[in-house]
Amino acid sequence: MRFRFAVFTTRAVNATSRRLGRGRGTVAGGRSGLKVDPQLLQHLTASRRVALVTGTNGKTTTTRLLAVALGAGGAKVVSNETGSNMPPGHVAALAGDRRAALAVLEVDEIYLPRVLAATKATVVVLLNLSRDQLDRTNEVRMVSGHWRAALAAAPHATVVANADDPLVVWAAGAAAQVRWVGAGLRWQLDAVGCPSCEGRIAFDAAGSWACVTGCGFVRPNLLVTLSTGQEGTGGGQSTGGQSTGGQSTGGQSTGAQSTTYDAEWADGRSEPIRLLLPGRFNHSNALMAAVAAEAMGIAIADGLAAMAEVDEVAGRFTTRLVSGVRTRLMLAKNPAGWSELLDLVGKEDGPIVISINARTADGADPSWLWDVPFERLAGRVVVATGDRCRDLSVRLHYAGVAHVMEDDPLAAVRIAHGDHDDGDHDDHDDGERVDVIGNYTAFAELLRASQPARVGS
Amino acid sequence: MTAPLGIAVVYPDLLGTYGDGGNGLILARRAQWRGFEVVLTQAPSDAAVPEADIYCLGGGEDGPQVRAARSLIEDGTLARRAAAGAVVLAVCAGYQIVGKTFPGADGAPHEGVGLLDIATAKGTGPRAVGELVGEVVGEPSDDSPGALGALGALGALPTLTGFENHGGKTTLGPGVTPLARVVHGVGNGDGSGTEGAVSGRVVGTYLHGPLLARNPALADLLLDWALSGEPAGDRVPLVAFDDRAADALREERLAATVGGRRRVGTRRRGRR
Fold first, then answer.
1. DSSP B146
2. Is residue A313, in this structure, part of any structural domain at all?
3. What CATH number has the domain bearing residue A250?
4. Are residues A189 and A73 in the same domain?
5. What is the CATH number of domain B5-258?
6. Confidence of residue A238 (pLDDT cuts 50, 70, 90)
7. Residue A312, in any domain of the structure
8. What is the pLDDT of residues A263-287, one digit of tens each?
9. Cβ neighbour number for residue A400 with a 10 Å cutoff
10. How far is residue B180 from each of residues A232, A268, A347, B100, measured CA to CA in Å?
């Protein structure tokens, strides 16, 4: 009875919240429901098969790709696709669709132990761990340790783990069943201290690693690896994170320098990964999702075929209009995410807007900006904006990147586009596309203020 | 000075979690912009610590911090160079390990490098997380002002601003003076209301931001020390230049803490 009332409450609050225009209401409804029934997450997942996706970067995209892959089998799938990745967001999504037999939940790193215990998940996807919101998470090694303890207590779960990340391997090492994926690790600086013995992890050029102190902690044997090559060369060498980059546009691959991606199994099988989403990191996310989907009964080729249709995830990567200007909106919220994204945008020379906030969901301190190699943007038109544009401006100053600082993100987009502020911003859907990269809340703010671009623009 | 100014960021692979490597970059750029030749080195933990004039140590996690201290003691270069007058700027975990003892992941005390007469123990209360504002301790220049005019000594520095995130409590011994009196925030957390510690040319602090991005006058003082023979000796003139970006950041951060928006340990349990 209490359970039914909790579901009713969750849906009612969400509906009201949406009607009042206070956003999508997922968190408000979920909180109310959990107050009525603290076991609501258990109850809502008791009769479903559940996959959890967590890690510092790529959660939202991988969750979406996995949901799409599972849908390829014809089953109904429910997912917290808005990115509300704590229990209120989970129960809100689950209460909204009682019939779906499968659930794919994006989970905040800190909440994985609690959500795993509540949902008895069948599959847990561990993407990567690196510095992010240190005022909240404190230390990535602590997070890895908490995952490890939680997985040791969850023998029902099959873990799909990125074997190229030692902190992920440390956590997954305690699990009963693991499928090790060589998904790559562009940012290795948070994994140098061995989580097993306090010694030192050494990486080789191909991305393999071992503790040099001799405690025996080494990269496990890979089930499957993401490999990159150039278009026309038919595959390529294994990279393990030494990616040379990705396609240059969301949705349209530009012939000349197009990179190809393949999944290569230890037994010699190979499968091309073709996505509309750009960048090495998205192909890595797709491989993780494909292996997770396989663990839930979907053939790899079928899962990848379904993912190939996805052209945007929560507003990212597609062309959208902001202040009438054609933009490609992207999210990067920590040094690891920025390293991947700079591989993608760093090869172009168009104008770029960077928006940095330090609100609760971003972490209160943007010191991490100094770990990002912004030097690569020198010579571009760069506009610094967001609540913490002064921190960014000082960083760019020392990076030797000439830039303009503008507090208002919408005005920043117009400045980057070269508009004079004449009060007429109706239709600039013609000139150069502006790349706009924000951290969490900065991105969300810009997405809310944007409109879809016309087809063909 | 004829040889280039050597600046080493020590063990960025172990003590690099918090953007503190920026301190080394800032020192290098501020010297280069004034015409000095600089060699900036990122010194990884699997190699010998290089000879340098300024050493920067940053924040790190408990496990890697223990590893860093052990390697620095075995290597010996940092202690030898500091004794010879090299400048050391040590932040957070780096601050703790240049002291006499610090806690490892399990809270047990470990031996530090011993450049500063401080001892750090695991705190019992909530972790100190948030903006910190402090007034730098020390007399204004008691001898001829240095190349930076009034900024020849620590005591003449403007208000210190930074972001702290630590669970350790640091007690200062008689061999050091505090870097600052805390106006907002926690700092050393030993009940003395102080932040950081200084002995000679070794400066330790909990402040991220990074510290020198928000406090360029301190960066110039450290350069002034490194570019002169003795603290009170002949100082090489450092030319002042445009710091509007940093000034705007300082103003914003100081204004943000005045309204009492500071948050201390309100989030999660802390360690170290």
1. B
2. no
3. 3.40.1190.10
4. yes
5. 3.40.50.880
6. very low
7. no
8. 999 999 999 999 999 999 999 999 9
9. 12
10. 63, 63, 45, 20
> pLDDT tens, B141-154?
444 344 333 345 78
Q: How far is B204 from chain A (nearest CA, A)?
A: 18
**B203, B160 Cβ separation under 8 angstroms:** no
Residues 6+ apart with CB under 8 A from A422: none
User: Across the interface, which of B19, B129, B252 has its CB nearest the CB of A135?
Assistant: B129
**Alpha-carbon span A436 to A298, nearest angstrom:** 36
pLDDT at position B152: 55
- The CATH number given to whatever domain includes residue A389 is 3.90.190
Together in a domain, A132 and A260: yes
Do A395 and B46 count as a contact with CB atoms less than 8 A apart?
Answer: no
Number of domains comprising chain A: 3
**Is residue A457 one of the residues assigned to a domain?**
no
Q: Please tell me whether residues A293 and A236 are part of one structural domain.
A: yes
Arithmetic mean of pLDDT, A254-271: 82
B92 catalytic residue (yes or no): yes
pLDDT in tens, A365-413: 999 999 999 999 999 999 999 999 999 999 999 999 999 999 999 999 9
A332 and A233 co-located in one domain = no
Q: Which residue type sits at A449?
A: A
Complex ipTM, two decimals? Answer: 0.91
Chain B residues within an 8 Å CB radius of A210:
none
Does the predicted model carry a pTM greater than 0.90? no
